[in-house]
Amino acid sequence: MEYVKGVPLLRPYIDYDNQEFWLAHREEKLVFQKCTYCGKIIHRPKPMCPACLSTDMEWIESTGLGTIYSWTTFVYDRAAYPGIRVPYIVVLVEMSEGVRLVSNIEDVTSEEMYIGMPVEVFFDKVSDDLTLPKFRKRKVKK
Amino acid sequence: MKSIKNKVAIVGIGLSGFSKDCKKTELRMACEAIKDALDDAGLTPRDIDGMIKQTDDSADEHAITSAMGMPNLTFYGETRWAGAPCGMVMQAATGVAAGACHTAVIYRAVNGGSGLRSTPSMRSSGQLSTADLLHWAFHSPFGLMTEQGAVAMLAERYMYEYDIKKDQFGPITVTCRQNGAKNPNSAYFKKPITMKDYKESKMVTDPLRALDCYEKFDAAAAFIVTTPERAKYLNHPPVMILGAAQGSVPETENMCGYYRDDVTGLPEMAVMGKRLFKMAGVKPKDIKFAQLDDAYTPLVPMQLEALGFCKKGKGVNFCGDGKKIKAGGRLPVNTAGGSLGEGHIHGMNHVIEAVHQIRGTATLQVKNAKIGLVATGAGGPAGGLILGR
Hints:
The structure holds 2 protein chains of 2 kinds. Chain A is 4% helix and 37% strand. Chain A is mostly beta strands. Chain A has 2 domains: 13-61, no CATH class; 63-142, CATH 2.40.50.840. In chain A, the strands form 2 sheets. Chain A has a 5-stranded antiparallel sheet with strand order 6-5-4-7-8, with no helix packed on it. Chain A is globular and about 45 Å long. By secondary structure, chain B is an alpha/beta fold. Chain B has one domain (9-117, 214-388): 3-Layer(aba) Sandwich (Peroxisomal Thiolase, Chain A, domain 1). Chain B contains 13 helices and 11 strands. A 9-stranded mixed sheet of chain B has the order 3-2-4-7-1-8-11-10-9. A two-stranded antiparallel sheet of chain B has the order 5-6. In chain B, a hairpin with a 5-residue loop joins strand 10 and strand 11. In chain B, 60% of the residues are buried.
């Protein structure tokens, strides 16, 4: 993905509910929220477990492994974020923990994309103060 | 359960044209649409004592009462997102049925063609709600920040799950444009399209083409609701509200819903529809026409499934080559053109066309159109109405 110089980067909005998720990226870790009471793994982070209403939460490190659940290629620049050169791919990844997250995939063309593609996380240091979890195609041993 | 069924009537409608640059403020657009609705009903600003606005609209209720000299407003409120047109009617109707007001106006005015664009949110970041923040925080850093992109990922998954082929959404936009081509108020009057045009239309966010997506316009619309007793003395036969509902479920957000078990099922539309049909006491087979949210073509078959017009995964088959959803088909859809074929004013024109159909004053009049459905807010917070005579 090619970022366009001069266009402000879009940064996540960090608050008390989600700060562990975003701050972990600086240490190149992907973490998800887990309800200490009922064990439900949650993404996006929430103030309370929607299954049991416990506010007792912990953060677990993800395996970083997932599969493509859906994807799109932004082709037309006026329907895209001007800070990234089109075409670029946005993916919805289903992680091995069972949660989904929106991200990007690198080193794969639109023609090569398919739902179910195995992927693994890597960390893209987009700027000095912004590191984002992104994905690459993963080889699976048969 | 007590309900508002048959307790409130829609008695006035107003709809502007669709312009790329109307050179009017949104306040003026709103006032003109409300004046048209008052004239249509045979009412004056003094008669209005209730008002429901869409949260994002810049022209607020206090500006309207000042601009139009409304001295009697005692009930007002707001709701948000694409489901708002039906939701606003429901809230106004709730006020009328409960006796909190007697005659209420609902309006939207959006300079989407010339002025502020509606995506991303028209509000400044300082005013973002928590739901907005969640939505943008987890998507925009990855360049996912338009509805076209958000819906494209729903569509891609939908095609995968139900073996839908490329171009199978085409007949939906072709049907809407054919309907709109016959509607003199449409931005696309006398401009029908064919499947060839659709297939040649540029790719925007794969798999969505330009002709799968609505265009932005400057436009405004208003409706007036009142009691059936008062409706007797007004200009038109009343259009009765038989059912009205909104819908929001876990992980509902504008045009997304990526984090739930069934991404393509529109569960908020399903929960809305369940309440709606129960309140009206009818079934999908009783509905003579439907005005559906067609902001993006894949949302139409998803709605047909969520509302029970067909089985899950069969929405695209239902739309087929357009035969069933055309005027004269089994379920005529978006008979004035909808967002894709008339113009986009966020679903408000869908309610107006439903009123025309029930009154018998539609351009493409459905025979025996005594009961019809409107759905707004597919792929996000939903709203619905069942209207009748």
